[in-house]
Amino acid sequence: MAGGKRSEYMPSEDDRASSFAQIPTSFGHELRACLRCRLVKTYDQFRESGCENCPFLDMDKEHDNVVNCTTPNFTGIISVMDPTRSWAARWLRIGRFIPGCYTLAVSEELPEEYQALCADNNVHYVPPKRT
């Protein structure tokens, strides 16, 4: 949020209160996590409706974007109903995202071209910590 401006893709308080991310329809090997916000859904759900926190990634329009911007390799899942009031959501740095299911950690980085897309859209991206 450069210059104190709210990113156009950051949900407002009203939007967060009235919208939720899709809940995964299954909990098998078809789950994927968004590499930017760590939202967890099935591959088909990302393909059909994209990522609710990252609409600028156009996952619902481009099949390759789902493959490039999500990963099946993640650790743990947390369901968050009220991210603004959840200490766990704040600790995981997902307190500004909409309610939904999130992974605790991803180990892959968002590809550089999509990191540039985040910067172009004035959206903050934090790469995963290297262990």
UniProtKB/TrEMBL annotation:
Localization annotation: Nucleus
Cellular component terms per the entry's GO annotation: DSIF complex
Keywords linked to the UniProt accession: Nucleus, Transcription
Domain Spt4/RpoE2 zinc finger: 31-107
GO molecular function, one term: RNA polymerase II complex binding
SUPFAM superfamilies with a match to the protein in the record: RNA polymerase subunits
One family name in Pfam for this protein: Spt4
Keyword Transcription set for record: yes
CDD domains in the record: Spt4 (cd07973)
Database matches in Gene3D superfamilies: 3.30.40.210
Family to which the UniProt record says this protein belongs: Belongs to the SPT4 family.
Biological role stated in the UniProt entry: May regulate transcription elongation by RNA polymerase II. May enhance transcriptional pausing at sites proximal to the promoter, which may in turn facilitate the assembly of an elongation competent RNA polymerase II complex.
Protein name: Transcription elongation factor SPT4 homolog
